[in-house]
Amino acid sequence: MKRRTFVKNTGLIAGGLWLNHADLFAANAGRVINIGVIGCGDRGKGIIGMMDQFPQKFKVVAICDVLDMRLDEARKFVKNGNCRQYKDHRQLLDNQQVDAVVVAVPLNMHYPIAVDVLKADKHLYLEKTMTYTIQQALDLVKLVKSRPKQVVQVGHQYRYSPLYFRVKEMISKGYLGKVSQVDCRWDRNANWRRPVPDASLERQINWRMYKEYSGGLIAELLSHQIDFINWAFDTHPSDFMATGGIDVFKDGRETYDNVQLMLRYPEQNMVGNFGATCGNSRDGYLFKIKGTKGTVSLLMDRGMFYPEKGLLKDKGTVDGVTGATKITWDKDGGTPILPDATKDGTWYALNDFYDKIGSGLLPDSNIYTGAKTAICVHSANQALYNNEIVHWKDEYQLSAP
């Protein structure tokens, strides 16, 4: 069944988002950026594989990990036979061939390695969550402000997805009406544990399970959805409430395997519910934004809009919003937001990283937005693990120059 969508002939993408990218590409045309990757776990290897799709833009010339097994795994993802390998990230940063660095290490090492990258005069793609503590986020903002010639992008890739970009526009133009509720889940039925070839490597390999290294489910999963709400509404929560526990896997872990957050956004008169469990996979990834005129329901690469019943009866109103002459609804009364599934958000984010290195402009996911979301994550974890209500502080207010 053919459906009309919220982007008439994909005009938003073809006419706006991609034309801006084309202009920026001209400033960088023909240049290949030499990349060093610090951290060769799943995320680091994934980024290496993604960069291989852009041989005219990126060349991975150096990789680094403290574990030999990770270097051996990453080597298979690097198509460049001359790629150098390091176990000490400072040696990689001494390599003058490296123009920019991807940092995909355990969360507790984000800040110290990011500082070293900046002081080595390299551009930086820093994976989420930006820092392990709030003070580190504030300090990193100060350091980046003092080094304006370096591009720093943070790995919250929803800010680059055409689907999520479109949803942000729908919110700003009032298509959803007054939004009062956000419901998010990221569930799985698995213990999050990785095989350990030697017991001495337990904390290095399964670092996500230990508070010394990790922000747990909130930092690793829910931070993406928290960041999108910050971006879409140009806001941040003021009150953080949470509960959870080690309810499923009694295996010595310290970070909770079952969490539920409730965040209050008083400026928007809005409540955000964010949850994750390792004990059930039925819902998987869910992201619902609920307004007086309708609901957006998102997966990572697809989205649907469901008008409220009164609006659904008045097709003319909906047609005026979408620009479509006729809308065909599915059996649940919804219509797709974009005609086709989008690529992984990292694909778009890496394209933008390349463009911003060429133009020197501030990335959409930058040091300021990354700090805001890091502060949210750590405030939520404080509420979770200390069983208290945490409030946003005035000194957390950050703005780009």
UniProtKB/TrEMBL annotation:
<dbReference type="InterPro" id="IPR000683">
    <property type="entry name" value="Gfo/Idh/MocA-like_OxRdtase_N"/>
</dbReference>
<feature type="domain" description="GFO/IDH/MocA-like oxidoreductase">
    <location>
        <begin position="166"/>
        <end position="296"/>
    </location>
</feature>
<dbReference type="InterPro" id="IPR050463">
    <property type="entry name" value="Gfo/Idh/MocA_oxidrdct_glycsds"/>
</dbReference>
<protein>
    <submittedName>
        <fullName>Predicted dehydrogenase</fullName>
    </submittedName>
</protein>
<dbReference type="Pfam" id="PF22725">
    <property type="entry name" value="GFO_IDH_MocA_C3"/>
</dbReference>
<dbReference type="GO" id="GO:0000166">
    <property type="term" value="F:nucleotide binding"/>
</dbReference>
<feature type="domain" description="Gfo/Idh/MocA-like oxidoreductase N-terminal">
    <location>
        <begin position="33"/>
        <end position="156"/>
    </location>
</feature>
<dbReference type="Pfam" id="PF01408">
    <property type="entry name" value="GFO_IDH_MocA"/>
</dbReference>
<dbReference type="InterPro" id="IPR036291">
    <property type="entry name" value="NAD(P)-bd_dom_sf"/>
</dbReference>
<dbReference type="InterPro" id="IPR055170">
    <property type="entry name" value="GFO_IDH_MocA-like_dom"/>
</dbReference>
